[in-house]
Amino acid sequence: MTKARTGTSPSAAPAADTGPSAAQQIDARIAALDDWRGTTLARLRRLIHQADPQVVETVKWRGVPVWEHDGILCTGETYKAAVKMTFAKGAALEDPSGLFNASLDGTTRRAIDVHEGEKINEAALKALVRAAVALNVAGQAARAGKPGERATRRGKHGAS
After folding, report:
1. Alpha-carbon gap, residue 123 to 28, rounded angstroms
2. Which of 69, 108, 115, 123 has its CA 20 to 30 A from that of 47?
3. What is residue 6's predicted lDDT score, i.e. its pLDDT?
């Protein structure tokens, strides 16, 4: 997994080159998809960043773009016939606009399959992203006071 790099302080020692950042890997993935799927993934990415400017991009599971804020918000997978945006805790989110159209039977995740030519309800999608952020932040806050846990950069882990 690679995290998107942020700026470093001028006094910081130069880091060893660990390869392309997550943002660069996602850029390359979008460029490699030189059809409607690349355009769609780029648009979804832009909407996620508009909904949550503090989102962190990572890449996991053999190149799948992942957007995180106090835990995974959603992933952006590409298939022949669809770009799938899977919300890690989607089953716990209200979806008044009915965007979720895939993975509806599970108890945790929900997904949105976007097919070629389909319109995206941008306001509703941004609302879902914001709701996912709020859910993750609330979960982090609830875990913050539990004894036996220590903070890490991306969350809480039980003490070893």
Report:
1. 27
2. 108
3. 39
For residue 121, pLDDT over 70 is answered with: yes
Tokens at 109, concatenated: 């995740």
Beta bridge partners of 77: 84
Residue 144 has a pLDDT of 77
Q: E strands within the chain?
A: 2-3, 56-60, 64-68, 72-78, 83-87, 110-114, 149-151, 156-158
> What domains sit in the chain, N to C, each tagged with a CATH number?
21-146 (3.90.1150.200)
Q: Are residues 23 and 7 in contact, defined by beta-carbon separation less than 8 angstroms?
A: no
Q: Of 33, 9, 5, which is closest to residue 19 (Cα–Cα)?
A: 5
Rg (CA), the chain: 17
DSSP label of 59: E
Q: Of residues 21 and 157, which shows the higher confidence score?
A: 21
